[in-house]
């Protein structure tokens, strides 16, 4: 057929017209079979980035992505299966605490996550800091882990949503991440294929997120909810603030360690024994809130108040930590490493970046932090790059903190060798991303809206 060929499909989108369901199906299927080249898909993605997609195109793309692989049937798993998915942010490590916590509260969580995308990190990459950890479970193994532990943490594979795996890797390195229909199709395809009954979306807003304004984040949230409804999944979305890294750590091993310390209820004014600031609880608080919404959606709790109480209890009494350890064991990871987090990949080469002047930390262009992490080797610039899990930051200050001149803002975990000029340039880039002002600015709420 004349109109079913890659060039005409790309041209249609480039010219701002609608691709038909058949064209979208064909494009995705041919991409999976290797019959459409990466450069053609990239051109199409870029056209979508600029021209957007209508609601029916977005639905057709999501369905085509789901059909690119198997769809799991979780009927043999008793209980309500609820998952959460974040649209991505710098230092967003919530899933690592939330999934075991929700399971400890009685939900089943078949969590399918992604890898690093753009300037944000991915849950799968963070889990792979643990030696031998297997994110590629077969269906049978997934069932086994869900039965035994109540939750599992997996990625897309050759069998399940392979289209997202391939598209995600291309988008990551071709400037096509920040696009509402592509984000929505990527998230929903994974979540429908994994077989959850319900979903909570954490739609991030701010300088460390793909959606920089509340308005755009709201459009994304509404797109996700509409798609969820069309695909018969019960969902809700929370718009949450991402004006600074969540918690204190950014970087794969460091983020994992921060989560382990929260799961173990350790003193959260320190990470790896390094003092942070006077205990901002944003990471823990957001995790509890999102878990509570999952518990209410899954009817484990009658209302949010009860749900929050249950989540606090299961975190405080160590139940979530036990679940996490059991999941690591079942998915082949080294529990020794998790029990002794200092044995996770970490670098000894650190430096401290200090405040240039005194005042209050008022604003952060958080995307820059993610970009510096990538420059240092702690993220991917191209599909084939390997991540140095050891690289990262521990922040000593949060927005609103008072800072003295020369006071440490962040400890940077560096590669073994780094050109001093490059390091100086990165430090200047870091300072350009921060605003220190004489007056304290009030930062926005952690949860901006529930949709
Ligand atoms: N998370 C995903 O799974 N996909 C995106 O495109 C963005 C965030």
State the shape.
Answer: globular
Separation of termini? 43 Å
Largest pleated sheet: 4 strands, mixed
Query: What is the count of DSSP helices, taking H or I runs of 4+ residues?
Result: 17
The count of DSSP E runs of length 2 or more, i.e. the number of strands, is 15
Mean pLDDT: 93
Roughly how much helix do the residues carry, as a percent range?
A: 40-55%
Q: What's the structural domain tally?
A: 3
Please tell me how large the radius of gyration is: 21 Å
CATH architecture label of the largest domain: 3-Layer(aba) Sandwich
Structural class: alpha+beta
Q: In percent, how much strand structure appears in the residues?
A: 15-25%
CATH-assigned homologous superfamily of the largest domain: Nucleoside phosphorylase/phosphoribosyltransferase catalytic domain
> What ligand species are in this complex?
uracil
Structural overview:
This protein is of the alpha+beta class and 451 residues long. It has 3 domains: 6-52, Up-down Bundle (Transferase, Pyrimidine Nucleoside Phosphorylase, Chain A, domain 3); 82-157 and 178-341, 3-Layer(aba) Sandwich (Pyrimidine Nucleoside Phosphorylase, Chain A, domain 2), CATH 3.40.1030.10; 345-437, Alpha-Beta Complex (Aldehyde Oxidoreductase, domain 3), CATH 3.90.1170.30. 45% of the residues lie in helices and 15% in strands. It is built from 17 helices and 15 strands. The chain has helices at residues 6-14, 21-33, 38-51, 55-67, 94-104, 123-127, 139-149, 162-172, 180-194, 214-230, 252-263, 282-297, 304-316, 319-330, 335-339, 366-378, 420-432, and strands at 82-86, 109-113, 151-155, 198-205, 234-241, 249-250, 270-271, 274-275, 350-354, 359-364, 392-395, 402-403, 408-413, 434-437, 447-450. Strands 1-4-5-15 form a 4-stranded mixed beta sheet, sandwiched between helices. Strand 7 (270-271) and strand 8 form a beta hairpin. The structure holds uracil. Uracil binds next to helix 9.
